[in-house]
Amino acid sequence: MTGEEIKSAHKQYNLQSWSRQKSINPIPLQKAEGIYFWDYDGNRYTDMSSQLVNMNLGFGNRAIGDAIKAQVDRFCFMAPSYAVETRSELAKTIIGLMPDNMGKVFFTNAGADANENAIKMARMYTGRNKVFSRYRSYHGSSFGAGNLTGEPRRFPLEPGIPGFVKFFDPYIYREAISFESEEAATAYYLAKLEEQLGYEGASSVAAIVMETITGSNGVIIPPKGYLPGVRALCDKYGILMICDEVMAGWCRTGTMFAFQHFGVKPDIVTFAKGVTCGYVPLGGVVVSKSIAAYFDDNLLSCGLTYSGHPLACAAGLACVRYYGEADILGNVNRVGKALGETLEKLKEAHPCVGDVRYIGLFSAVELVRDKKTREPLVPYGKDPEGLMGKIIKLLSARRFMTYSHENCVLVAPPLIITEAQLTEELSKLDEVLGIVDKEML
Ligand code: PLP
């Protein structure tokens, strides 16, 4: 097929996610290597979002490809009830990377079903039925994960599942109150959460589910003491703490898992994306030793045909080994420092940049009409003039490929990016922000 034929068949036969089908305009792609991909006319694009913040190791990683091929030669599939080397070894490796309270892994196909199964296990283990999650979070688009989600992508599922309660996250930049310090903000949000637990009946709450660092809703990093404070509330009321590490996990933020920045031990961790970098889909739920022990005698009423798919586990094992062998965390911390410094300069230089938030190679640029009032460039949930789409187009025209959410542009390149490559790409972002300053405010 030619590029044009591929594009036209895509438009005619595929239903593309999160899109009005009439407005889609997919680029037909021919090949990809490292942080780049090419269309059928030979144009090279830079992946500045790691696709959907999943391709942490970029395209064409030989070690992952070879591990998949080796497993294809042995067998492609074996039901979850058989012991398979890649499945056993990956679970063992993941537990080895976790804090000492964690016990076992239940593998899923991706992130949404990891969260589905996490809340199911939490409800079975605690015998309670309410689940707390936060506004401005995204946990997946299936029914349960979609009900955890605290932004408009859950609206088609409403009126929603009874017992799914939302609370406010510590988004200090957009808070009406100003705080003297991060600690003061933490104390405020924790007091509100405890108050809400009281009104909901804390003894009926099975779990508090949080993206450790909120991802697609604008890389919102919790203030000092916030996660330990949530942990303490969970301990006080017998609630399970579930950290969704689907986007923030696997070296993205400069530690293997984002919760490691904050010195907390969750009861359940969900993961997906970077565990295989998308070479084969895989997700999972890691549970504490005590939750694992509960299911020694009680039925684990969870199941998926492809739980722990041997090919996916082969990819996962190669991927996780590669993170260590190639010192990916070293690169994330080195290049991430440069990313943060450049983003701070962009914020200084451009009236349209209200805030920049970054940790490791995970960052967002929040656009405003006015730095002082912090009025967002586009109102929440709306973009009547299509401004964010225009900004993404201006970036794409310079082959800087990423996406936006509300008034934030995401910058989350593959974790193998070099400082020189990053500098080249951020100069394109600088140029586009200059156009926003002149033409869109
Ligand atoms: N949780 C978080 C934090 C995510 O960012 C995503 C997807 O972006 C999901 C869950 C859902 O994962 P998936 O799309 O693999 O189902």
TrEMBL record:
The protein's required cofactors: pyridoxal 5'-phosphate
Q: Does the keyword tRNA-binding apply?
A: no
InterPro entries xrefs: Aminotrans_3, PyrdxlP-dep_Trfase, PyrdxlP-dep_Trfase_major, PyrdxlP-dep_Trfase_small
User: Gene Ontology cellular component?
Assistant: cytosol
UniProt keyword annotations, A-Z: Pyridoxal phosphate
Q: Which family does it belong to?
A: Belongs to the class-III pyridoxal-phosphate-dependent aminotransferase family.
Tell me which domain of life the UniProt entry assigns to the organism this sequence originates from.
Bacteria
Which SUPFAM superfamilies does the entry link to? PLP-dependent transferases
Which Pfam families does this UniProt record tie to the protein?
A: Aminotran_3
What is the protein's species of origin? Papillibacter cinnamivorans DSM 12816
Record PANTHER family: AMINOTRANSFERASE, AMINOTRANSFERASE CLASS-III
Gene Ontology MF: a single term: transaminase activity
Q: Does the keyword Ribosomal protein apply?
A: no
Protein name per the record: Taurine---2-oxoglutarate transaminase
